[in-house]
Every structure is written in C-alpha cells, then in structure tokens.
Amino acid sequence: MPGAGAVLVRVRASSVNAADWHVMRGDPYFARLFLGLRAPKTRMRGLDFAGVVEAVGPG
C-alpha cells in the first residue's frame, strides 16, 4: 500500500536517455560535486516510464 501522497505504478516500459547515461558516468567531471564524487548519490536513474496505476495512497 502506498504512503500518503504516493502512487504505486506497475511499470510496463521504461527508457534511458542521454542525460541518465552522463549522470551514471559522472560526465562532465565537475558535475560529480553535485551528483557524488565516487558514485552517484542515488542509485536509480530515469524518469521516463509507462504503466498502469495499481494503488493510490491517502491524500
């Protein structure tokens, strides 16, 4: 069950674009100051997906 203000989506398709690729590589190097020096701060990349809403949390 999703928390307050959240939705649960069954993902049917996703994509990776050039921006995701550059973030994972740490390109350009100065971006590492904001994204993580040795590895990305967040392990999940990408915002593009398509799917079906399975559940909606309160609010």
Structural account:
The chain is an alpha+beta fold. 20% of the residues lie in helices and 27% in strands. It has a two-stranded antiparallel sheet with strand order 1-2. The model has no long low-confidence stretch (mean pLDDT 81).
User: What is the global morphology?
Assistant: elongated
Low-confidence stretches: none
- Largest β-sheet summary: 2 strands, antiparallel
- How many strands in all? 2
Strand order of the largest sheet: 1-2
- How many individual helices? 2
Category by helix and strand content: alpha+beta
State the helicity in percent bands: 10-25%
Mean pLDDT: 81
- What is the CA-atom radius of gyration, in angstroms? 15 Å
Q: Give the termini distance in whole angstroms.
A: 13 Å
Strand-residue proportion: 25-35%
Number of domains: 1
From N to C, what is the helix and strand string?
EHHE
Give a short overview.
The chain is 20% helix and 27% strand. With 59 residues, it is of the alpha+beta class.
Keywords:
alpha+beta; 59 residues
List the helices and strands and how they pair.
Layout: E1 7-14, H1 18-25, H2 32-35, E2 49-56
Antiparallel strand pairs: 1-2
